[in-house]
Design goal:
Helices cover about 30% and strands about 25% of the residues. By secondary structure, the protein is α+β, with helices and mostly antiparallel strands. It has one domain (about 5-245): Alpha-Beta Complex (Creatine Amidinohydrolase), CATH 3.90.230.10. Strands 1, 2, 4 and 5 form a four-stranded antiparallel sheet that branches. The protein has a three-stranded antiparallel sheet with strand order 3-12-11, with no helix packed on it. Strands 6-10-13 form a three-stranded antiparallel sheet, covered by helices on one side. The longest helix has 24 residues, at about 5-30. The radius of gyration is 17 Å and the shape is globular. Pfam families: Peptidase_M24 (PF00557). This is Methionine aminopeptidase.
């Protein structure tokens, strides 16, 4: 189901997005070699709850954690764990959803643990983040879903990387996952027409090798089929008459 949000509803989602954005800013200093991904999960959960909000991922289809912490070749939905200790140069994606007084915000951000001496890692992060914003630029009334995906895919593939197909963006509010589906690949001018008041996530997942994935035995975690690295950046945005409004914008 696709719901068009009023200015008041978008403002409420932006409040949830501010909580989430502030957490990602705080993670820049918190994430370091030697800590576990469960420590990150607990840090995020406490920050959400201290802000009077709800970590919406807990309980979603049986999911147990406030975050998804996906390392290196894990594309998405990685489980945090006490024994999963971060090492210098690891590539970590932290994804979480905040529910603040019923308003939702969803954002994933990618971090290098410590320092990376691998130029491919730095290039992958730069390309993925730029791809996110190229997709956002297309999220205006009158454009189509395919315009978002085409902008992302064309840029990413020209840089020598691939775009994950199996996991895509989505509408958000009043629940975590709503219509429309927002692929990060596609043809310009194709797909559903975007309307003022839509709220969606754009969250390209970009791999160094093949875009194909395989699932872990836990039934949640997806990783690259060839063991290559995967990167993701995600914002929640509102489509407005004045252009795309990023609701999870970081300071």
């Amino acid at each position: 189901m696709i719901t068009l949000k009023s200015p008041r509803e978008i403002e409420a989602m932006e409040e949830a997005g501010k909580i989430l954005a502030d957490i990602h800013v705080a993670l820049r200093d918190f994430i370091k070699p030697g800590i576990s991904t469960m420590e990150i999960n607990d840090f995020v959960q406490k920050r959400i709850e201290d802000a009077g909000a709800i970590p919406e991922q807990i309980g979603y289809e049986g999911y147990e954690f406030a975050t998804c912490t996906s390392l290196n070749d894990e594309i998405c939905h990685g489980f945090p764990g006490k024994k999963e200790i971060l090492k210098d140069g690891d590539l970590l994606k932290v994804d979480t959803v905040v529910n603040y007084n019923g308003a939702m915000a969803d954002s994933c951000w990618c971090y290098v643990v410590g320092e990376s001496k691998d130029p491919q890692v730095n290039h992958l992060m730069e390309v993925t983040e730029k791809a996110l914003y190229l997709g956002i630029e297309q999220a205006i009334p009158g454009n189509r879903i395919g315009d978002i995906g085409h902008a992302i895919q064309a840029y990413v593939e020209a840089e020598g990387f691939s775009v994950v197909r199996e996991f895509i963006g989505h509408g958000i509010g009043p629940t975590m996952h709503e219509g429309p589906s927002v692929p990060h690949y596609g043809e310009a001018g194709k797909g559903l027409r975007l309307k003022e008041g839509m709220t969606i996530t754009i969250e390209p997942m970009v791999n160094t090798g093949t875009w194909r994935s395989k699932m872990d035995k836990n039934g949640w975690t997806a990783r690259t089929l060839d063991g290559g690295l995967s990167c993701q950046f995600e914002h929640t945005i509102a489509i407005t008459a004045d252009g795309p409004k990023i609701l999870t914008k970081q300071d």
